[in-house]
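Q: Can I see a sequence and its folded structure?
A: Here is a first one.
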Amino acid sequence: MLPAKNALRHGYLRQSALKIRPPNQPLIRQVAKMSYVVQRGISEEQFHELWRNRKVSQRKRPFIPAIPISLDGETVDDVERMNAENPGPLYMTLVPDGPGLILAAYTVRASLGAEVAKLGEREGVLEQRSLGDCVDLGSANPDLVFFEHENLRGVAAGAPPFEKLSNLGDFSLTGSPFSDSWNDQMSSIAACRWSYSIFEHVNFQGNEMYINFPCSLNDLGSIGWSDRVSSIINWGSAPPGF
């Protein structure tokens, strides 16, 4: 039998049911003094259709993180050259590197899967060297909560487990039809119980960042992702296939 922590990670412990609310009324949650609007994404059928038909599209802009980066297992010494020689999508996650973290990027998504398979063994190390605040997995918020500004400040919204938001441009930043959308507005992410992916383009295309440890990312700019997110997935208790 899996230990309680691993059982929770892999979905063997039940989650509490969501409260029913009237149609068209936004669900607002308050967790650990954070208030945010819960966003609902596309259906599973729509998701699988989009996922099957994803295209390999070039990046919108050069990818320049503030922390060290490796590409296909090799340390990158010249980020400008990396961008010039590899204009296609990068699939990445954070891994331990000495006393800190390194951004492990791959040009083939299946290679990211091989790296992710090792992450369970490194979870404690990742938490010790995280780029934000960590929480106990059992008390972590199951919603993926993201913020307009660094350090979990500004307007916030959340994606519950298993929700796939294919186009953040469909969601108003403030709830007003006259406000900007969430597209390319995300600057920090709170600790989440479940693994999640953020994507550079709509419909889960372009660069992908995969995170599966319960620590916040207080400054997405440090890993090259501030104001660059256009779609997201909260994988819930069903980790993605690579």
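Q: Show me another, different protein.
A: A second, unrelated one:
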Amino acid sequence: MTDHWDSIVDVLVAGSGAAGLTAAIAAADRGLDALVVESTPRWGGTTSVSGGGLWMPANPLMLRAGGFARTGVDPDFGRGRTVYDNYYGDPRVKPNPNLGPLEKGPFRAFRVHPGDLGTKGGLLTDEHARVLREDGGAIPGLYAAGNTTASVMGRTYPGPGSTIGPAVVFGYRAARHAARHAAGDPA
């Protein structure tokens, strides 16, 4: 183990949850040098206690679910049978707005474990996951996603797992924005 920790990186990701790992992967995919740091003894941040399994591309369950997406019928869990399910589905996906095939990579995997966690407060961010000052302006170079941020759903909680999706999406958006900024695009 070394006592010398100085590093120069393009993207420093604080937190190894879904948002942080997604940001690091997206940054690395765009040629940036990303470093993930975690302040807790558990790698995976809050995501490590808030999901329920290990997703691996092209596993037998995924291939079976791909068949469900083509037929629009999920005999295992009945996804998409109710008005409630369809309200949260993607109306562009046919024949069932809750079932879409995952057929083209690249795919990434990370372990998710069961738990119960959500947030009703945190840092305010914009559409690029940039942290906002009290006056609404973005703090240059500071991004946040996941359970460190205010919920994108305001004061509502649609249901279990609803913090993971925004964490991944905004981690990805943060990395894309940081990559564009590093390449000289001020947007």
